[in-house]
């Protein structure tokens, strides 16, 4: 097997492929400081080889905050010993990737390794476990993990705003810089082992949200997936984060972004729409965001559990012994179980209050029902954790003092660490499991409970159960946790409503045995088929699909720092060279050029849309050349265009996307499409007015040939929904009218059928041919969807009779984005420089050789 790790990064940068020898190579030395490898042994400077170099294996690089390893020191010599952490999700997901996929892990160790031991430890982990450790200095790690991750991201993603220093802490720029620095160290570690053209990279969770930018910056075509294991908050919460745009753009450098639930994905998409102006589409069941020519796919699938691991623990003799012990301890009583981390979001205190309420409202349960609350150690630290612990202890003490009796405590709080088999034993004997977190990304406790309640023959015998009998279980879950939507048989509760939770607990106690069996069977069928292997396999499949067109696109990066992004465009799409077009311009005699106005001759988003002196001067210079026919094609009405360009006597104008046309200032306006009447406006306008009244920020633009409903200044989500409704409404009421109803960028437009900018381009080319001046030069520049019709016409004309067989055709869009055009220019300033160069060429030609033939230039206004 060939391990395709590159250690000579200069080869990658130059595009040179490594050569694999037949002899076995050593693993490259793993760098223990941030940065790229600069020195490696000669024999390993290209790759890591194997005894069988002709066989290749697919490889996945899994990146997480912590490696799936356990570490301890050898008592004899003090050396570090490592073993797999069977509880780690990163290790468990390997089962779903297949035996033919090699897996390499990149992450931190839980233990701090002395600097003089780091090289040896790194080499051992790479050779033995295929793990690449990222050694983060303690001070930096504290700022990164306990600082930015736990004080800023984690509370915010769980809907806690830093309204005071006690609530998560105010934003600290130094903690953010530490977060970015650690993500960069992780990127450097990935670079040491990645083969960018072949390997897949799967990044996990909120600790590494800007890592995709660093990887994409190094390799534009890296195959990169990201999965967020926490909630993603609504836009109203997320937008309070000072670095909101940087994180969103970093995530969008992934090919596939995964979420546990649709709610989390919906919030992410809403943030992208509101803060970055991006829209998403759903095609054949897949959701995708178009981002600079790349389609970023969205995956929605909750993670599962490793059933094999649970079943192996269920089979252990110590598990059986613990089950017997607990069964005897709680004999004759109904056990309700809670398993939660001791943090502010798990709702332990609310659950205890609900138990208290249950005993108050249903005193018959006193002495009969026990709530066992297992409190795992909190992953974070701080005053809030201490407050949660103190409140929990105080509540338990109050409940037990009030309702307890000799030999009976209504609540058993276990806050000392339990072995896994001990926790499994509690699952087995519990009649009901309560998960009442106020906010949690996924929470796999209910899944573990279901599998453990299914049990096995040995445990059935121990508990005196009939092995052939149907198993039973009851679940009470918060509606604010990620697993809730997948557990349709559970009793869903609002954990903040203590009375409702108490009633749910009572319902779980009195439900019939048959109902418990049906609910358990439904849950077990889902959990057993949607395990962690299913989740990992599904994610890998979608990642392969999302990366399928990498080689069919030409990619390059733009932007600095965390604003970096990759442009992915058609292989034939390239930047228009001024020198190239000026050369073609000088060689030709009959020319036609089509230009857009907004974002072409005027800056994007400018409040003053009237043409400036510079643009008008360039247009007039082009029009003075007798070989040029200059046209401006616009969506504006003809009255506006007439006023704006009254000083351009030879400039041709086309208004309302080609409905009206005027060859020059001395000619009359004429219509390109003959329409019998505009009676349809009387139907469409009242409908638009209705939506305008109900959509704050929307307006109606009335043109001679069209009606446009604009929602640019409305709420993005509401405006989009209203636009969809308006589109359906108008299509319904105008079904028998000779008009087309189309949606565009923040607009819904009704216009006569057949009217588009392509009609103008076709009309001008045909007119020039009829006059015996077959165009041998065509330039068309536009920036939006309506200009694509012009691009299509002039590209199609290359194969027809409207153009000279040797015509030079330049279809050019503004900005690097998917288009029918073959060229692009970056912005308005580049376009004006190019047009000025053409005008200068005309002036020079006029001074030397008087022009004798006509040329056509068409300029689009919008």
Topology:
Layout: H1 9-14, E1 58-66, E2 69-73, E3 80-84, H2 89-92, E4 101-108, H3 118-129, E5 131-133, H4 138-157, H5 173-193, E6 200-204, H6 211-218, E7 223-227, H7 235-238, H8 244-251, E8 256-259, H9 262-276, E9 280-283, E10 286-291, E11 294-300, H10 307-314, H11 317-329, E12 334-341, H12 348-361, E13 369-376, H13 383-403, E14 411-414, H14 420-429, E15 432-435, H15 445-454, H16 457-463, E16 474-478, E17 491-493, H17 498-510, H18 513-529, H19 532-546, E18 553-558, E19 565-570, E20 574-575, H20 578-587, E21 591-595, H21 613-624, E22 628-633, H22 638-644, E23 652-655, E24 660-662, E25 670-671, H23 680-694, E26 699-702, E27 707-710, H24 716-733, E28 739-744, E29 747-752, H25 757-770, E30 777-782, H26 788-797, E31 808-814, E32 823-825, H27 828-848, E33 857-860
Parallel strand pairs: 1-4, 1-6, 4-5, 6-7, 7-8, 8-11, 12-13, 12-15, 13-14, 15-16, 16-17, 20-32, 21-22, 21-30, 22-23, 30-31, 31-32
Antiparallel strand pairs: 2-3, 9-10, 10-11, 18-19, 23-24, 24-25, 26-27, 27-29, 28-29
Helix pairs in contact: 4-5, 5-6, 8-9, 11-14, 11-16, 12-13, 12-17, 14-15, 15-18, 20-27, 21-27, 23-24, 25-26
